[in-house]
Amino acid sequence: MSTDHTKVAVVTGGARGIGAAIARRLGDDGTRVAVVDVDLAAASATATAISQSGGDAIGIGCDVSEDADVDAAVAAIGDRWGGIDILVNNAGVIRDNLLFRMSNSDWDTVMNVHLRGAFLWARAAQAHMVQQQWGKIVNLSSMSAYGSRGQANYSAAKAGIQGFTKTLAIELGPFNVNVNAVAPGFIASEMTRSTAERVGMTFEDYQAQFVPTIPLRRVGLPEDIANVVHFLVGEDSSYVSGQVIDVGGGPAV
Length: 253
Hints:
By secondary structure, the protein is of the alpha/beta class. The chain has 2 domains: 8-184 and 222-246, 3-Layer(aba) Sandwich (Rossmann fold); 186-219, no CATH class. 47% of the residues lie in helices and 15% in strands. It is built from 8 helices and 7 strands; from the N terminus they run E-H-E-H-E-H-E-H-E-H-E-H-H-H-E. A 7-stranded parallel beta sheet has the order 3-2-1-4-5-6-7, sandwiched between helices. Helix 5 links the parallel strand 5 and strand 6. The longest helix has 29 residues, at 104-132. It starts with 7 loop residues before the first strand and ends in a 6-residue tail after the last strand. The mean pLDDT is 96.
């Protein structure tokens, strides 16, 4: 890929939380950013903020688990910028429950957004990347992949993301496409705030109970994840592929 080409990035689930932090960081890097989210209004607001800071971004409404939505989003990005250089599969949902209480819908919704969504977007984006012999894909996993009470669906999906990442690294490596995963630990975000509300705790108390289990003795911020994604989509990581990088303030203890 020529050095004068302004890269185009897609960040799914980019309207808020970790996704928005990633989108903002890539925008600050001079990358054109498609902020993709099921909530079009929120995606557009994040894109507008990036543009007002001097970046070039658009918001696109998309249910990542729906073929037609993904196809339409890819077409819109192609019409505006010509292709896709960077894909960050961040879209995710939680439907936490203990196994005996977990419904089919709880299971299917989490699998469809995390795994099917990553599959559909990666399949679409790789066509551009293979053709130009350059690309970066970063999939968002989670340290919950190693096991998390009440999250059989989420843990299984995030573990699946890790196998998906390593396989894509093998398949796409010959075309100069790097594929890696980031596995966040506890991050102070809208998702963890909603979990606190669900269990009847203030967000401050909910965070405080996790701090003693984190070697760095603090919870993470969305920007902590964005910084690692910034590295993985840049040239300094050109020989890094097929890796899962835990970003949780230390090993799980």
